[in-house]
Design goal:
- By secondary structure, the chain is α/β, with parallel strands linked by helices.
- 37% of the residues lie in helices and 13% in strands.
- The chain contains 19 helices and 16 strands.
- The strands form five sheets. It has a seven-stranded mixed beta sheet with strand order 5-4-3-6-11-8-14, with helices on both faces.
- The N and C termini lie far apart (89 Å).
- The relative contact order is 0.11.
Length: 534
Amino acid sequence: MPASASPTRAKASSCRRHRRPHVFQRLQIFLLLAVVRFQRQIRSTRRMHSFRKFTRSFDLRRFHGRAHAATNTTEALRASGATNQNGPRRDLLDVMMRRSNTSSLKTIFRFLQSHTPREHFDEVIYNHTMEYERCQRYGLAYTPQLLPGKGNPARRRRIFFGSLIADDSWHAIGAHAAEVYGLYHTAVFIESNMTQTLTPRRMRFKAGSFNWEFLVSSGIFGSNTRVSMDYFDNRDRHLKELIRENVQRGLILKTWKLNGMTSEDIGIVSDVDEVFSRDFLLAAMTCDVPEFRPGQNCHKPKIVASSLVLESSPECIVDRRAWYHPDMAIGECIDTIGNATDREPALREYANKTLGRRTKGQFLKDWKDLPPRTRYPLWTPADFRCAEGGRQYPEKDPQSGQVLSHSGYNAFHMHNFFPDLTVLRNKYRTYGHPVWGADSKTLGQLHTDIKVAIMCAMNRTATKTERSLVRGGWAHLLSEGRRTPLLYANEEYGRLHLNELKDAIVVDESKHGETTFGPAVGSKRYRLPQGTAK
């Protein structure tokens, strides 16, 4: 080292030269980093591609200062490929089958790959005899001149569907989609980042996620059905319990209007585990329904379902339990769709009495104390769910006119169809009707409904005070000329699902204890018959 050089600088310089990687080492590091980046890119390419298309076509804006909702839905649907002309997308269904951890879920997605019923919304009606016979089953007339097109040619009415969505199982979503394939013009789902008890929750259908892409783009609801997601984010601590649910449903109307809903179209509001039978939907789209005729005063415009309740599994059919959802109404009586002239708005429970459930006029008896009128307020999604004022059209025997067995059900309620009982416990702990201590109770202590599922899956007996099961199951109902959901025609699916439910109950009871029933009084009435699928 030269005498003039600083020892410190020389040492530092020598150190840098010593630590500099060899050219081959640098090449190895570069290639390793490139491989890692490439692997990450492969995993996220589809997700990011969908998210970019979503952000280009959606304009996020605030709803009353706090709730964010996705708008420009029609353009977003075109961008995301939701309107698929070639039936369900096999690529997405294949991925879903690979991701499914149970045999019953794989069976659903395999079924949906080839499930393409021929009827669809807005189609021209050619077989008038078939439509006439269908209308007779519900005590309705068939008048093609009252349909869109005025009978020349006659076309079906369009249906716009709206529902909240959260931790709903693909069992319920898949059965719903199979039943309504091609019949909905629009299906909109609203997800919130908080439950009704203000418990934060992870968004399951976040824009750009695979769940979002599958729901919106897979085509399981129909090749021409416009499926969209909106999001509700309101942190008002006073907005809780069912008030929060009622306000959240209000976002449905925005997408209906954006997608071109008119006063001649039908609106349906429900939870995703509730669905009208395909036969009744076709009747509503075609028959002369008094509540759908022009010139409604909107006092009692609602069509109320008569639903058959299935508890936790397709094979567990609850006997003598009434359920009155989903609900439908004609666009003429729906808020922001129908003509509001000379209709005084109803007072409501939130946001300066403009949002949520009605405070006056929710029940028919309320109108006796209100000023008389000839035109009543238009109905919001909360009114669909909460307000009185409608009629049921149960299925009847065309010859005798008598209502068929089990209240002539025309809809199905797939209650508590969760693949994991941990999700079931979370529902009873955090949602609209919370059960305190749900994580430590036995299953039967959560709700009487769960006892029915245990009776069904474990073949246990109960007292007269417990709800009972339909003896003979679907075989008995089919022998009486009743209908099953289209998905349940696959007997293998029901058998697999019931076995999985049984296994889940065994695991849960090993942790939380076994559900106890009273003495077995009249047990034959409450047990599944011999030979029923397990």
